[in-house]
Amino acid sequence: MLRFFILLSVLASFVTHADNINTLITQAQANNVQAQYALALEYQQGKTTTRDLAEALYWFEKAAQAGNSKAMGQVADAYLNGLGTNKDPQQGLYWLTKLALTGSPQAQTALGQYYQALKNRSVNAQNLAQLWLHIASANDPKAQAQYDQLLEDKFNAQRARQVASINQLEQAVSDAEPSNEPSQTVDNEPTAHSANQDNGHAAKDYILLGVFICIMVGVIVWLRRKKQQRALQLQAEHTEKQSQNKKVNDQQLLLKRQKKQLETIFREVKRLQGENQKLQTQLAQTPKSAPPPPPAPANQKLALACAVLGFSPNEIPNEKALKIRYKQLSKIYHPDMKGSEEEMKRLNNAMKIVVASQKK
């Protein structure tokens, strides 16, 4: 028996944690910063879900971009130490510096220790420029333009170095090849073969450059499409959630209205039952020699029928409204809906009496 309760408690705990994770995911996708940070911690610690450092970094970065200082520290640590991603000191310094600018003494100390550890090594001025322009680009369009230009210059410089390396390699291969022609001819008069070879090298360089540019353009287009798809997915999930919440609110409102109607009907029935009990008491006290009491007047039957349907005898609605009310009460009194046959018969009789009174 004890094992059963232990197993039951473990299952209940598992279901509760699963519900908490699903709730955090929904709130995080709706751009709730606190939920994004909490979800990232869940993925980082792996206590209530599978440990996933890459997913943790994704949600930490989302929260950091929204200004969460704790998330900034987590993102800086991830990039500096390669947690959930490859090491990227430039990105790590960016987030650490941004956190230090918010006034965090821990970040300021960590930043000082990082530069102190460099000792005699010089700091690349271009890297510092990139760091500060990246930080300023969030609030300054001019800084954004300069940051983009700096990235473009770095890309062009890297591409030029790659092309130069290719040229040097080809030149080394060309110099290593044996020459069958006399040295005097090579020194004094360039041949058509060497000219064609130079043209071939230039063509190879252009082809390699074109392939590299095509690959970079393809990667940029793919990243933009992926980002757009992610945004559309989040928007669709948010819209669906709003629609579901509206349906739930409408159903709750309908249930409240029906509950009020039932309470009104119940009070009216109680009142009529009390009056009926008083009449029965008076009849019991009447001498036996007295003539039998007359049958209940039609007005009393109509009042009872109206009470069952939830209307006042003086304000009986039209036949269409009566049918709507009858359908609503049938869902409550029907035996298949936790009602009883006796209650259903009482409802049918009340409906007949009210309809008959309208036809007179």
UniProtKB/TrEMBL annotation:
<feature type="region of interest" description="Disordered">
    <location>
        <begin position="276"/>
        <end position="299"/>
    </location>
</feature>
<dbReference type="Pfam" id="PF08238">
    <property type="entry name" value="Sel1"/>
</dbReference>
<feature type="region of interest" description="Disordered">
    <location>
        <begin position="169"/>
        <end position="198"/>
    </location>
</feature>
<feature type="compositionally biased region" description="Polar residues">
    <location>
        <begin position="276"/>
        <end position="288"/>
    </location>
</feature>
<feature type="transmembrane region" description="Helical">
    <location>
        <begin position="206"/>
        <end position="223"/>
    </location>
</feature>
<keyword id="KW-0472">Membrane</keyword>
<dbReference type="InterPro" id="IPR001623">
    <property type="entry name" value="DnaJ_domain"/>
</dbReference>
<feature type="compositionally biased region" description="Polar residues">
    <location>
        <begin position="180"/>
        <end position="198"/>
    </location>
</feature>
<dbReference type="InterPro" id="IPR036869">
    <property type="entry name" value="J_dom_sf"/>
</dbReference>
<keyword id="KW-1133">Transmembrane helix</keyword>
<keyword id="KW-0143">Chaperone</keyword>
<dbReference type="InterPro" id="IPR006597">
    <property type="entry name" value="Sel1-like"/>
</dbReference>
<feature type="signal peptide">
    <location>
        <begin position="1"/>
        <end position="18"/>
    </location>
</feature>
<keyword id="KW-0812">Transmembrane</keyword>
<keyword id="KW-0732">Signal</keyword>
<dbReference type="InterPro" id="IPR053301">
    <property type="entry name" value="F-box_motif"/>
</dbReference>
<feature type="domain" description="J">
    <location>
        <begin position="304"/>
        <end position="360"/>
    </location>
</feature>
<protein>
    <recommendedName>
        <fullName>J domain-containing protein</fullName>
    </recommendedName>
</protein>
<dbReference type="InterPro" id="IPR011990">
    <property type="entry name" value="TPR-like_helical_dom_sf"/>
</dbReference>
